[in-house]
Amino acid sequence: MTELLDTPSSKVSLNFHAPVEYAAGGDVKIINELGGRLLTKRERKELHNLVLQLDREFGQKGWDTWTYLHEKIGVNEVGEMRLDHLKAAQALLQLMIEAKQAAFGTSLEEAWRQEYQSVCCDLLEQSEIEVNLRAELRHYQQAYSVLKCDHDRLQQVLAQHRVAAAQFEREKHSLGSGVTELQQRLSSEVQSHRHSEAELKRAANRAVGLEHQIDSLIAGRLVDSEALAQAQKKAEQAQRVVRRLRGSLICGGVLAVLATGAAVYKPLFQAELRAEQSKAVMLKRKDICLFDGEPFSWGTRINTPTGIQKCVKSRTGQYLWQFGK
Q: Residue 217 and residue 233: Cα distance in Å, rounded?
């Protein structure tokens, strides 16, 4: 508790019963025993500045401060304050400022402590967040490595695909050229086939004519063969007659002549008969060439007035004579 003593000799004494930082307005007791002149305008301004400092720095309203100051000094308004009241009023206002500063310092320290704790909590949270972020960063780095490997592999696959596409285009162009060439060859072969069909038709017509000729020739040859067979039969009958007459002396010479003639002409007749039969068989074949009505097999060469001719087979399957060595 602080006591302010105001004596008639205009001396003011302040007795502090506690440290200044713990002093408050209610701890100050002013004993007004002073007189003297009224305060000047400058002195009032000094008090007003202290009151204004309390209002500006600590939010204490000026009206409340003046009311409290008047009550403690023992006046009703500032106009009643004397010169001897000035130092006591200044000391009281200064004590109030120091008390506010001490309270503000405590609250500020508490605020700083709370802020420090909050900052520590934030740092812990940020540390945890940093750890999580580092873990996520490692995870993302691993994912990036995997994605990079996949990207490189896809680039390789894309390059291979491009090479395959280029090769496919080349093969496609080559196949197109091959198809065009095949179409041209097919067209030429179709034309050749049509020409061959025409030749085959002509050859077939000629073969039909030749078959008719061969049939007529075979018919003529068969007549000759039958005549030879009849002659052979007659010769055999003559031989039988000769055998029957062999015992007769009268016909001995005749039999001898007939036997000699039969022995000489029989092989000739048989050879001619075999030749006619072979000719008839050859005339029935299709792989022969005819010259003057006589059949010749494939590959036979004959001398003609115009030169050597050879029996050959044409592309149409027809057998024809061809000049050659």
A: 24
